[in-house]
Amino acid sequence: MSATQIALLSFLAIMGGAAVGMFVGRALPDHHLESGSKDVVRLAMAMIATMTALVLGLVTGAAKNTFDTDDTAVKHTAASLLALDRDLAAYGPETKPIRDALRATMTAKVDSIWHDESAEVRAGARGASGGEKLLDAILALTPSNEAQRWYQSRALQLSSEMIQTRWFVFSGSERSVPIVFLIVIVCWLTVLFGSFGLFAPRNATVVGALVLCALSVSASIFLILEMDDPFSGVMRISDVPIRYALAQMGQ
Q: How far is CA 236 from CA 13, 66, 115, 150, 152, in A?
């Protein structure tokens, strides 16, 4: 289910809670709506609102951390890719097939991750890699002097770092934010908006305010889900650093 669909379902659930609250408020006897009852309900809802804010903050922080970590990993991979190409070029002309294969492999991988909307293709791009073959090709080089040995060692180190970064970014679970957290948050918000509707007057101004509030909360859930899946959707990680590195390779 996409972030947009989840946010829309959250909006409908929250507004459903407000509508039920208005219906129940109209059906309750007057002594259930006196000031004492209102105070108790407001205290209970204040506690739920506090817990919702805390959990929502934790979930937002986890999603932002996932987005920032993957963004940093992409930039690090771009820098390592360009450095690897430069080291292989400095080794000698015999590394040209390795450099060409490296560029072709990374170009295909970047295209599949950033331009193909198919989840299956993205998953395949994350799992498959020619990194191990690249390591074997570099190991097969036979350096003839100290400089070539140094460049070979450096290329092996950069290749290993790129492979480690790939598995660090792509081998984890699809989402770092447990879906149970979001379900609990939506349930709390539904109860909270139900309490709003319980004592609210029935007019267009109140309904409009509740709709705007529900939209705002649903938008925050949408942003959390978008940040938690940084290689797809609206808020995807920029491919500019890796594209720049690919454009500079071979020069």
A: 27, 12, 11, 38, 35
Number of domains in the chain: 1
Q: Give domain status of residue 30, yes or no.
A: no
How long a stretch of residues is the chain? Answer: 251
- pLDDT tens digits, residue range 237-248? 888 888 888 888
- Cα–Cα distance measured from residue 249 to residue 65, given in angstroms and rounded to the nearest whole number: 31
Does 29 map to a domain? no
- Rg for the chain (alpha carbons), in Å? 27
Q: How far is CA 198 from CA 26, 32, 57, 204, 218, in A?
A: 8, 11, 27, 15, 21
**pLDDT tens digits, one per residue of 168-182:** 665 544 566 778 888
Domain that holds residue 135: 3-24+35-248
- Do 143 and 160 contact (CB within 8 A), yes or no? no
Angle between helices 131-139 and 96-115 (to 10 degrees): 170
pLDDT range class, residue 211, cuts 50, 70, 90: very high
Model confidence, pTM: 0.74
